[in-house]
Design brief:
- It is a single chain.
- By secondary structure, the protein is mainly α.
- Helices cover 89% and strands 0% of the residues.
- It has helices at residues 2-25, 30-36, 39-74.
- Helix 2 crosses helix 3 (39-74).
- It is elongated and about 60 Å long.
- It comes from Trifolium medium.
- This is Conserved oligomeric Golgi complex subunit 4-like.
- InterPro entries: COG4.
Length: 75
């Protein structure tokens, strides 16, 4: 069904973003960058914020698509 496809798409996006975020967090010397501060912290923080924002926007798109498909199916 359409809902199952959307649920699968949402899960896939969630897993992909989670994996990408985990890779960023496991970045070599991340602890040193956070401890010593400087440009590394700003860049790492910006990267993580961008990844979280991308997850949020993607989930909004999936929910919007689900809603539009449900409306079309109801017609």
């Amino acid at each position: 069904s359409v809902v199952a496809v959307l649920s699968g798409a949402s899960s896939l996006l969630s897993n992909e973003y989670h994996e990408a975020l985990q890779q960023k967090v496991r970045e070599p010397n991340l602890g040193a960058k956070l401890f010593f501060g400087g440009v590394g912290v700003q860049k790492t923080g910006t990267d993580i914020a961008a990844a979280l924002n991308n997850m949020d926007v993607s989930s909004e798109y999936v929910l919007k698509l689900k809603h539009e498909i449900e409306e079309q199916c109801a017609e």
